[in-house]
Specification:
about 170 residues, alpha/beta, 2 domains, seven-stranded mixed β-sheet, 5 helices, about 35% helix, globular
Length: about 170
């Protein structure tokens, strides 16, 4: 079957229309919960124990949702590790949550990069779908479990510090 320039153009318009619809649908999906919303999280540690955001009540918490498939996470990983090892991290409760269910894959990713920060596997939460293109997702949660601030995508140490202690306006 031969295609005419008109049928090629029509097929191209259909592909473009589909891409626009899919892009619009993705942009309408919430990237993060609303500030002030109470965050719920139960995750599994690699040893099988479970942790909950409720365990951190009374402390401010930084939740970092990540996936080895996220290019922005891979580019931000060094900054995160420096932060996790710094005195700034000692002042908060830090939970790094891998969204992939494959524990062996997450361990392999960590080992290949020499990463040493503790992590958990995503379990139950009220965040909805987290797609790798919107990761990493950083959530700063207050002592009562309410979202204070969030950041989506690649970040630096400065981004982390400003999330935790925003500059005065």
């Amino acid at each position: 079957m031969t295609t005419t320039p008109l049928s090629r153009a029509a097929a191209q318009r259909r592909r473009l229309s589909l891409a626009l619809v899919l892009g619009l649908a993705a942009s309408l999906a919430p990237a993060a919960p609303a500030v002030g919303e109470r965050i719920r999280l139960v995750a599994s540690l690699p040893d099988g124990n479970r942790i909950s955001l409720d365990d951190a009540r009374g402390r401010r918490t930084l939740l970092v949702f990540w996936s080895p498939a996220s290019l922005a996470w891979r580019k931000s990983l060094g900054e995160f590790e420096r932060f996790a090892a710094s005195p700034d991290a000692a002042a908060i409760h830090l939970i790094a949550v891998g969204i992939d269910a494959d524990l062996a894959g997450l361990r392999s990713f960590m080992a290949a990069r020499g990463a040493r920060f503790p992590f958990a596997l995503r379990g139950e939460d009220n965040l909805g779908p987290l797609d790798e293109h919107r990761l990493p997702l950083l959530l700063v949660v207050d002592a009562d479990g309410q979202l204070l601030r969030h950041h989506t995508g690649m970040f630096t140490g400065r981004t982390l510090r400003e999330l935790l202690d925003p500059p005065p306006r």
